[in-house]
Request: fold
Amino acid sequence: MNCPHCETEIDEHEASRCLDAWVAKAVMDELALMSPSPIYVGRFDWVKKGDWYVASENDSPYRVPYYSVNIAAAWEVVGHFSERQYHVEVWEEDGFD
Ligand SMILES: [Zn+2]
Reply:
């Protein structure tokens, strides 16, 4: 399976906004769009041109969560799978050298 944005293989894709947008669309069922220009997503927050945001009919647009580098956002993905009865196995390692 290749990234729909950059064509990188899933196993070789580095953590990036591109990967975050792929997760948003493919896993989280969000409508992730690349911002054609800076857009306002909160009282004091803007999405830069070329970054990814989620468009919603009911809510204000918001920045695509940093699923690939933010552990809290990554846990949202795990929760999303669990809610849909997918078996999620979390591996733990004893540190890195
Ligand atoms: Zn990509």
